[in-house]
Amino acid sequence: LTLLGRPGHLTAAYISGRRVRYAQPIQVYLWCTALFFLVHAYAPVVRLDSGSGRITARLSAVSFGDKLPDALVERLASEGVPLAAFAARFDAAVSAYQPVLLAGLVVVSGVMFEILFRRHRALTHIVFALHWAAFFFTVEAVRQVLPISLTWHETSGMAATAIEAVYLTIAMRVVYGASWYSAV
């Protein structure tokens, strides 16, 4: 609950040595990503609709829907590959690469925090990146299981992005002692 309700406090407690009371950062990250992937199995974040040929992504900060290029659809048809079979392979490939990409998010976040806050130790950036990603995946998992209509999905995406941005700003202020201006 500290992760969700008190931005940055879990990281600050860990860095200051109060570790016994809380789960290790990697455990928090793994539990939250496990929740995310459990939800992803039910409501995929990225998928190809075999009926319309649209690829949709439903992360709050990155939501889009685009049709497959006509040239690809024609090539599949000429090779006798049904769109449903291609969609199944596409969805499987996305699911296979998604953990690597999401772990990359943690690495990129840690590097970004290192660039922004150089006077802090590397451990601070790693722990903060793990906690930030855990929060992000939890918000996205909750958002994916809410009743979805096109209007709700767009609205919930904007709301989730705003919540994630406010959380990140407050957490950076708590962990790094950043001013409000530099945290934004």
Account of the 3D structure:
- The model has no long low-confidence stretch (mean pLDDT 81).
- This protein has helices at 2-5, 9-15, 25-42, 70-78, 83-116, 122-145, 150-176, 180-183; strands at 46-48, 54-58, 63-67.
- It has eight helices and three strands.
- The protein is 69% helix and 7% strand.
- The protein is mainly alpha-helical.
- Helix 3 runs parallel beside helix 6 and helix 5 (83-116) runs antiparallel to helix 6 (122-145).
- It starts with a helix and ends with a helix.
- Strand 2 (54-58) and strand 3 (63-67) form a beta hairpin.
- It has a three-stranded antiparallel β-sheet.
Please outline the helices and strands.
Blueprint: H1 2-5, H2 9-15, H3 25-42, E1 46-48, E2 54-58, E3 63-67, H4 70-78, H5 83-116, H6 122-145, H7 150-176, H8 180-183
Antiparallel strand pairs: 1-2, 2-3
Helix pairs in contact: 2-6, 3-6, 5-6, 6-7
Largest sheet: 3 strands, antiparallel
Beta-strand share of residues: 5-15%
Low-confidence region ranges: none
The DSSP helix count reads: 8
Principal-axis shape:
elongated
Number of strands: 3
Q: Share of helix among residues? A: 55-70%
Based on helices, strands and strand pairing, what is the structural class? Answer: mainly alpha
Mean pLDDT: 81
Radius of gyration: 19 Å
Which quaternary structure do these chains form? single chain
